[in-house]
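User: Continuing from earlier, I have the next pair ready.

Assistant: Great, send them over.

User: Here they are, in order.

Assistant: Folding the first of the pair now:
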Amino acid sequence: MAEFRYSDIAKMLDHSLLQPTLTDADLEAGVRLAREYDVASVCIKPYAVRLAAQLLAGSTVAVGTTVGFPHGGHVTAVKVAEAEQAMADGARELDMVVNIGKVLSRAYGYVAADIRAVVEAAHRRQALVKVIFENCFLHDEHKIELCRICGEVGADFVKTSTGYGDSGATDHDLQLMRRHSPPHVQVKAAGGVRTFDRLLEVRQLGVTRVGATASKAILDECRRRLGL
């Protein structure tokens, strides 16, 4: 007997549609694929949120997008405005990048206020916030402090990376983030989860969401193993 159902795996996946070269046609095809496979969400470029919301209307697939992508260097007011616009267009999940330079400067008061402002804006509209650390640039002390901050300000997820840094989701980082985050904060793995077996591995580490471009391949293999 399998330890999972198809829906358990599909609803772990945020289908990523953020590559800089994706055309409008590519984005539409990606959203349609996400709907067909009934994943948790799409994470799409901000300008395409409205399109995604139209294409996913009536489905159980949420619309997600990015805030402060990819390096988190926007001023806080711009991040909040970006979040508000995305939600007005139909986004219900926001993947926000921390200000990486401020983290490395250990300006944790600034970092906490930056995250809190987006979380509060999102939660007023019942949207989720996933806080992207971009771990390849950070030391463990930074990651641990970010986990503490995210718990304190009420973020919904901590997330390893944008998928466009020097590395993605490592076992070490996922274990560290799960260990240092309070129970109400979930962990999202992004970057390098391209196979069904790797998804099962990170699931065992406590990951509940995965950002992936290889959603189709992962879920086709899941179906094959389940005999669907």
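And the other member of the pair:
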Amino acid sequence: MNVSEQKPSLGEAASRFLASLSAGERGLSQQEIYKFVRWFGWERPLTRLTPPEVANYAGRLSLSDTSYLKKFELIRAFLLYATKEGWCRGNLATHLKTKLTKAKLPSSARQASPAATPLTKQGYEALEAELISLKDKRSQAIDEIRRAAADKDFRENAPLEAAREERGQLEGRIRELEAALESAVIMGKKETASRRVSIGDSIILSDEASGEELSYTIVSPREVNPARGRISSVSPIGRAILGKAQGETIEVAAPAGRLSYHIKEVKRE
């Protein structure tokens, strides 16, 4: 086995990892794994991927994204696989940390009124529906904890730990949704005279390198839903496109280099 086979590039490692999965798992993982690889560069040697870079990538993912934890699981599985194969220096998966805890704010900050959260009407209704659903799940999680706690051997009580962890995640998301809805400002119809991209607009981008077309709707961080093409206004693409107009070209900075996109179409609500 030659050196390149022992220490593959990110792209090669991703392909080998995906090939090791079942067809169903591969379908779920491929998009997120390739997004991770594209960010750092397909030809980037895995041995040159550093812990700070992995941690910074984790910071790019939005906590408001409903797929937030699933994305972490997919990328972490890839990094763990690479570690077991001996392709990287150390276990990079340990540096991919979720943002489930928040630092305590000073008392003066806690007493201040929360900043307004701009939401589309559709986004507001979606958060309301999610909150109702999560409160139902919280009741179920409490029941699970009670049943699991009936087993007095807490040392090996995996169901109890799992139920407690699930409830903790539910509580955090419920508090976040309640705060968002409390401070929400519903975005109204935009003036037709405005020609600049703003929150709520749907856009079609053309990748100037590959010609690939990408469709997105720019939303507040609270409304992110990658499966439906709804990306955050504070994401790299969101920041680059806000205020721009149809026909312009934007550039997005990535470790692999600057990615250029042509704004092919802007649709308003």
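Worth noting for the second one:
The domain at 110-186 is CATH 1.10.287.180 (Helix Hairpins). The longest strand covers residues 257-267.
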